[in-house]
Design a protein that fits this description.
568 residues; alpha/beta; Flavocytochrome C3, Chain A, domain 1; Methane Monooxygenase Hydroxylase, Chain G, domain 1; five-stranded mixed beta sheet; 16 helices; 37% helix; 20% strand; binds flavin-adenine dinucleotide
């Protein structure tokens, strides 16, 4: 059996759904998602989505240019400025569109959409729905997609991207429920597969965030960009790594060390707790390393104190955060501070695309967290990712429409069928024979990444990580799953994805090794300064003949914002 579609979208998160909704009128569109779409990681977003609506008393003179400037400064000047300008310009329209489609945003007393301050933003421009913003956005878009009769293949996962001679022919999917490999030939394919957080051991990301889409594109010869830039969020709940949204600090929460000091005063005297995430994460890590943290059976931590906000504000603005704290560690933030530590949160790097979400491969597009447009450069500001997913989901739809309208595109069944046969052989190998268990390799990989390619990086540690990754890749050749069953075999899915996670990790580590400077989230203890002469450029990774990444570079687009020192 082979399926055919005009547009095949992999990913039922915000980026994938928004693209599908835009294309549904004219084309036969299908979405493949390894989980039910509303279980995509977008559902977990808490704090909000940025737009300069200028509708609140503190933000009357906010503009999309100011939003663009904050984003570019936040990116440590690595973002492509024309892409940032597009995103910030589209922002208000996107937020109002979501409102008109039924998204229940929180409101100011006068009925306008409420906005709160977020890190690195000059104005309160983060629109939200208490602390479940991703939940309401995703449900709104999902309902819209259902009403457009878009075809969903849920609990199907993609095993490979099919490309030939610089053109994309579709994908090979695996139906988890029926246990079958299904080739899908498509005129155009869009990856909206989300981030790779699970390549790290301590991550706020859902278990499904393996980055397999990025790894698949890379293995299919599509270049990937800026992989060394990994965001660490300052406030993960101790032990569980569940995110304590930046909105906690946006609403006025403090960070305290064991001397009861608001230590951010030393690191970012003006912005304090609302400095960008790279800066706050490094500050917390420094406090921990210099002995000014607290001890807990689950590790060293810093306190996130919300008590002074009062019960009323916590219950109305941060009810989900309170519930998570009570349910997971038995702490009520109305009465006690929250123990937090920084952990991996977001993937700035990803599949290299232009501002239209086009990749180098004809017929293949990427949008959302799996893509690197790049609007976040070396460090993303909170609230800009939800915005990116919806804006670039929409723009990917427009670019696909333009391509299909102007070209007589035919799906190439043969290349898809050939690839299917190859995958069948691979699966037979994975389920027969004996060998190492994939979860052991995955844990070793994730621990290596958290330990050696974390907030602070150093040559020797990165080299050790690269060697470990090469070793685990070698051992992966003999990996074997426990059960030969093909039905709902998550171990088989994880094993297939692990191959791609190893590639993703390899590109992160090699990128971090080569970039001998400190910029945004990438901080080298052995090269502590930003070096605009040598390193004001994107890194591009392609898979080399020997299997490892080959790194080249690409220019950063600068329009009107000249690089300056970042002071907050
Ligand atoms: C806890 C948390 C809170 C956050 N809060 C905020 C916030 O307040 N504001 C903000 O701006 N950003 C926030 N972010 C970031 C933001 O939520 C994400 O970057 C964004 O939602 C990603 O959306 P996406 O559409 O790109 O991908 P996702 O929503 O991650 O969806 C990925 C989709 O791809 C599918 N998929 C992946 N691989 C495969 C495969 N191999 N086969 C089939 N399907 C596949 C998945 O099933 C899923 O449907 C937060 C992130 C986290 C983790």
């Amino acid at each position: 059996m082979m399926l055919h579609h005009d547009v095949l979208i992999v990913g039922g998160g915000l980026a994938g759904l928004r693209a599908a909704v835009g294309l549904s009128k004219k084309y036969d569109v299908a979405i493949v998602s390894k989980v039910h779409p509303i279980r995509s990681h977008s559902i977990a977003a808490q704090g909000g989505i940025n737009a300069s609506l200028a509708n609140n008393p503190d933000g009357r003179d906010d503009t999309c240019e100011k939003h663009a400037f904050d984003t570019i400064k936040g990116s440590d000047y690595l973002a492509d400025q024309h892409s940032v300008e597009i995103m910030c310009k589209e922002a208000s329209e996107i937020v109002y569109e979501m409102e008109h489609w039924g998204c229940p945003f929180s409101r100011f007393p006068d009925g306008t959409i409420a906005q709160r301050p977020f890190g690195g933003g000059g104005y309160p421009r983060t629109c939200y729905s208490t602390d479940i913003t991703g939940h309401v956005l995703l449900n709104t878009l999902y309902e819209r997609a259902v009403s457009k009769r878009i075809k969903f293949y849920q609990e199907w996962y993609i095993v490979a991207l099919v490309t030939d001679n610089g053109r994309c022919g579709g994908v090979i999917a695996f139906d988890l429920v029926r246990g079958k490999i299904i080739p899908i030939a498509a005129k155009t394919t869009l990856f909206a597969t989300g981030g790779y957080g699970r390549v790290y051991f301590h991550s706020t990301n859902a278990l499904i965030n393996t980055g397999s889409g990025i790894g698949m594109a890379y293995k299919a010869q599509v270049p990937i960009k800026d992989m060394e830039f990994v965001q660490f969020h300052p406030t993960g709940l101790i032990g569980t790594n569940i995110l304590m949204t930046e909105a906690c600090r946006g609403e006025g929460g403090y960070l305290l060390n064991n001397k009861n000091e608001r230590f951010m005063e030393k690191y970012a005297p003006k912005a304090m707790e609302l400095a960008p995430r790279d800066i706050v994460s490094r500050s917390i890590q420094t406090e921990i390393e210099e002995g000014r943290s607290f001890e807990h059976a689950l590790g060293k931590y810093i306190k996130l104190d919300l008590r002074h906000l009062g019960e009323k504000k916590i219950l109305s603005k941060l009810p989900g955060i309170r519930k998570i704290c009570i349910d997971f560690i038995g702490i009520d933030p109305i009465i006690e501070p929250i123990p937090i530590m920084p952990c991996q949160h977001y993937s700035m790097g990803g599949i290299d695309t232009n501002e239209k979400c086009e990749t180098e491969m004809k017929g293949f597009y990427a949008a959302g967290e799996c893509a690197c447009v790049s609007v976040h450069g070396a460090n993303r500001l909170g609230g800009n990712s939800l915005l990116e997913t919806i804006v670039f989901g929409k723009l990917a739809g427009l670019a696909i429409d333009e391509y299909l309208t102007n070209n007589d595109v035919k799906a190439d069944e043969k290349i898809v069928q050939d690839r299917k046969d190859e995958i069948e052989k691979k699966i037979i190998r994975l389920v027969s024979g004996s060998g190492e268990k994939p979860f052991i390799l995955q844990t070793e990989l994730a621990k290596t990444m958290s330990r050696n390619v974390g907030i602070f990086r150093k040559k020797e540690e990165i080299v050790e990580a690269i060697n470990n990754i090469i070793n685990i890749k070698e051992r992966y050749r003999n990996v074997c799953v426990s059960s030969p069953s093909r039905h709902m075999n998550y171990e088989l899915m994880n094993t297939i994805e692990l191959e791609y996670m190893l590639e993703v990790a390899h590109t992160i580590a090699v990128g971090a090794h080569q970039r001998e400077e400190s910029r945004g989230s990438h901080y080298r203890r052995d090269f502590t300064k930003r070096d605009d002469t040598q390193w004001m450029k994107h890194t591009i990774a392609r898979i080399g003949e020997g299997g490892g990444p080959v790194i080249t570079s690409k220019e950063v687009t600068i329009t009107q914002y000249q690089p300056m020192e970042r002071i907050y």
